[in-house]
Amino acid sequence: MALFSSLTPVFIAIVCVLIGVILKKTKGEKEKCETKSKPLSRPWVDEDLIDGTDHHLEEEDDDEEWQGLEENVAHVPFFVERYSEAEMIKRSQMFYELLNKRRSVRFLSDEPVPREVIDNVIRTAGTSPSGAHTEPWTFVVVQDPYLKHKIREIVEEEEEINYKKRMGDRWVNDLKRLRTNWIKEYLDTAPYLILIFKQVYGRLPNGKKKTHYYNEISVSIACGILLAALQ
């Protein structure tokens, strides 16, 4: 009995150590599991910009060939004008010099622009390549002052949330040297606003959904061509 009494503190200490080791191991495995399941934090990526190509559309019928589209598409011949090396260099240099003048400005002129110019730059953007030639973009031109102001209010409301909550300190700090904020007066000033929407899916003649492949990337390329055309 005396021996048991003398060993009791040692026994209790060993049990406590074992319990501590088990709890630490359990906590470590739990944290490891949470780390694996927790998505990578990327505050600069908007959830709305995720391309939904990988998600199968519920209304789609996998047995329907080519989503109901024509199998034989008319061939459009390709013709290109050939230039000498000297002409190619000259033209490429001129094009570079033109686009190098482009700037991301926050102050715009209210000087009127012919509507035909706006239509032409949008048509140019529409020549952009797209996944399976689905052309998943919609361009909306707004000229009405009231609508432009309502758009400004919506944009500023979202941008204020971006600056204060979504973007994070690093992004906001990087913007300080550019002296930008969520106030967008130029949305009222510009004679036209061009709103660009991506189409995650389209509609077939029978009403079923049609997948728009790489819709996010396709619209982004079209936006780049639009900027070049505007310049």
UniProtKB/TrEMBL annotation:
<dbReference type="Pfam" id="PF00881">
    <property type="entry name" value="Nitroreductase"/>
</dbReference>
<keyword id="KW-0812">Transmembrane</keyword>
<keyword id="KW-0285">Flavoprotein</keyword>
<dbReference type="GO" id="GO:0006570">
    <property type="term" value="P:tyrosine metabolic process"/>
</dbReference>
<keyword id="KW-0472">Membrane</keyword>
<dbReference type="GO" id="GO:0005886">
    <property type="term" value="C:plasma membrane"/>
</dbReference>
<comment type="similarity">
    <text>Belongs to the nitroreductase family.</text>
</comment>
<keyword id="KW-0288">FMN</keyword>
<dbReference type="InterPro" id="IPR000415">
    <property type="entry name" value="Nitroreductase-like"/>
</dbReference>
<keyword id="KW-0560">Oxidoreductase</keyword>
<keyword id="KW-1133">Transmembrane helix</keyword>
<dbReference type="GO" id="GO:0140616">
    <property type="term" value="F:iodotyrosine deiodinase activity"/>
</dbReference>
<feature type="domain" description="Nitroreductase">
    <location>
        <begin position="100"/>
        <end position="227"/>
    </location>
</feature>
<dbReference type="InterPro" id="IPR050627">
    <property type="entry name" value="Nitroreductase/BluB"/>
</dbReference>
<dbReference type="InterPro" id="IPR029479">
    <property type="entry name" value="Nitroreductase"/>
</dbReference>
<protein>
    <recommendedName>
        <fullName>iodotyrosine deiodinase</fullName>
        <ecNumber>1.21.1.1</ecNumber>
    </recommendedName>
</protein>
<feature type="transmembrane region" description="Helical">
    <location>
        <begin position="6"/>
        <end position="23"/>
    </location>
</feature>
